Amino acid sequence: MVSVLFVCLGNICRSPMAEAVLRHKIMQRGLQDQIRVDSAGTGDWHVGSIPHEGTRKLLDHWQISYEGMVARQVIGKDFEDFDYVIGMDNSNVENMRKLAGYDEAKILKFMDLLPDEKLREVPDPYFTGNFEEVYQLINAGCDILLDKIIREKL
Question: Where along the chain is the active site annotated (predicted)?
Answer without folding.
Answer: 8, 14, 124
